[in-house]
Amino acid sequence: MSESKESIQRTEIGSLGEFGLIQRLTNNFPLQQSTTIKAVGDDAAVLRGSDQAMVVSTDLLVEGVHFDLAYFPLQHLGYKAIACNVSDICAMNAYAEQVTVSIAVSNRFSVEALELLYDGMRHACKVYNVDLVGGDTTSSLRGLVISITAIGRQMEHKISYRASARPGDYLFVTGELGGAYLGLQLLEREKQLFLENPSIQPDLENQRYAVGKFLKPEARKDVVLWLEKAGVVPHAMIDLSDGLSSDLMHICQQSQIGAEITESLIPMSEEAKLLALKFQLDPFVCALNGGEDYELLMAVDPEEARKIQFLPGFHYIGECKPQQSGIQLKTDQGKLHPMKAQGWAHF
Amino acid sequence: MSESKESIQRTEIGSLGEFGLIQRLTNNFPLQQSTTIKAVGDDAAVLRGSDQAMVVSTDLLVEGVHFDLAYFPLQHLGYKAIACNVSDICAMNAYAEQVTVSIAVSNRFSVEALELLYDGMRHACKVYNVDLVGGDTTSSLRGLVISITAIGRQMEHKISYRASARPGDYLFVTGELGGAYLGLQLLEREKQLFLENPSIQPDLENQRYAVGKFLKPEARKDVVLWLEKAGVVPHAMIDLSDGLSSDLMHICQQSQIGAEITESLIPMSEEAKLLALKFQLDPFVCALNGGEDYELLMAVDPEEARKIQFLPGFHYIGECKPQQSGIQLKTDQGKLHPMKAQGWAHF
Prior knowledge:
- The structure is a homodimer of 347-residue chains.
- Chain A is α+β, with helices and mostly antiparallel strands.
- Chain A folds into 2 domains: 2-158, CATH 3.30.1330.10; 170-338, PurM-like C-terminal domain (Phosphoribosyl-aminoimidazole Synthetase, Chain A, domain 2, Alpha-Beta Complex).
- Chain A has 11 helices and 13 strands.
- Chain A has helices at residues 2-8, 17-26, 74-90, 111-128, 179-196, 208-215, 221-230, 244-255, 270-278, 283-289, 302-308; strands at 36-38, 45-47, 53-62, 95-105, 131-139, 145-154, 170-174, 236-239, 257-262, 296-300, 314-322, 327-330, 336-338.
- In chain A, strands 8-10-7-11-9-12-13 form a 7-stranded mixed β-sheet, with helices on both faces. The first copy, chain A, has a 4-stranded mixed β-sheet with strand order 3-6-4-5.
- In chain A, β12 (327-330) and β13 (336-338) form a beta hairpin.
- In chain A, α2 runs parallel beside α4, α3 packs parallel to α4 and α5 (179-196) crosses α6.
- The model of chain A is unreliable at 1-6 and 343-347 (pLDDT under 50).
- The interface between A and B is large, with 73 and 72 residues.
- β3 (53-62) of chain A pairs antiparallel with β2 (45-47) of chain B, so a sheet runs across the interface.
């Protein structure tokens, strides 16, 4: 996908210079938010003040650590980079409105390759209704580094923190889990096969689901809208970037509570289950410990739970407990097992 | 400076894990701003809303491109990284209130080395009264990458853009120019000498001025306060990161004007002049094209100029002209030369 456009033309980054490059990459990002007063092109972006609180999140993505360009098309990478940051804003029950994007690139990359990256970002900005308002473009000695800061807004009393879940709260998770992890496994295995025998062409057509979940995850802005329509503010919320077990632990630790979730209630697609079995993995271990699904995990007042339990994609998976109960997983056999966080670690 | 503390103890980053590392590095940043509702520790930081506009700036610093740890002590690097971003906020005539800091580091760095980096950042946060409210900590395959986003506030009508200077405006620059560039030259030369003969110890004691200008520049928050006291909002303002000629060109291009500045009015310290002559460089070329001074260049309504012309550190250097006049430098002999931007380019 990225190769076809690149093969047509190769413009060296050095031929444009830093300011020319910024202009070329950012010139076609139409502004959509009324709060954006000044976007790219000054010492700083300027955003309109309002009585809503501002929510600010930032991520650093490093080639070889967070992504492998051997199987990650640049357009998808651009899309995912924006989506992941918007997801952090959603996890606060807020609406993303602006992003800044900084990149450091080696001269291995052509201007056309970077345009593909920004094509993906542009698409994500359109889908999530966010404005690109600033950034920095510089060279690196090796590889690609992407730094994104997302800015969102919400009334102060509607913001959901990690630290305010209470014993008795119902735990809901959105969407389906484990797909992104299995997509990554699939791509890693195909890459190994290809490196061993380059004449073998990967057949990913039947695995669109998992590959798509990994390469093009979506931020659950729709969930934030559903919550608003339902008039529910979760006591606590987090997005599943590290994995359900690890992210549930963040909520429990910060809220000083325990939790009990039921294995059979964890939502998983049939495609993901079949793929896990094909790889001889326990599907529920993939759903519990696989990261990067970017679904939302929330703790909701039991009185309010009925307002959201039948909404599309909302799944009840368990309850918050007092801290001394610990964090436990109830298996199909009705047994309780203490849970451990085994999320992704980059170090 | 950085070596002494590091030699005492070396804790591997991997022994703390990502969350342990973030906690250790960010746990001693006392909050100072009433607008900071929630700092490090959730999916995003939360800042209080207000009728003031928000000003957002971001920078990406890459080892080997923007800094050389052979002569850049980590504490100074941390201080400078914050100061440069605060400087961007000052250049909008706004007040920085929060920063987010993300780092990518290879395991070449110990936890103690990163603590030195954050010591410098903590000191800068205290000096500039900004809160560290978020960030990301990850590994890199090689070297250190620092990404900083600074957030400031100002009433919308008091923000100074690059694009609104007018012909006839007086141009002022703060402080003294060229020092940082000469400091860098000095450190680069000492490094070369050291590489050629490691037994030679550098003697930088007599060069504290230039070395200090390069290693520990200050953001001119005091200038923003002076402007407020004087009741002056510059028509346009920019901070001198690329160099006077290059940054003046940014203002002229964006404001669609020309300019004429007088060589002999460009402020330069005696130390910097002597150092330039020692290196057989033209002092004014250093002042015009050397970057990283982080002084402020502003275009002020001539009616208002009298309110600031005698303020400490404010230097009148010329005037804005109509666009067709171009951008010109008047030499000591009274001759006019067209100016070219020859600022620092990282590509």
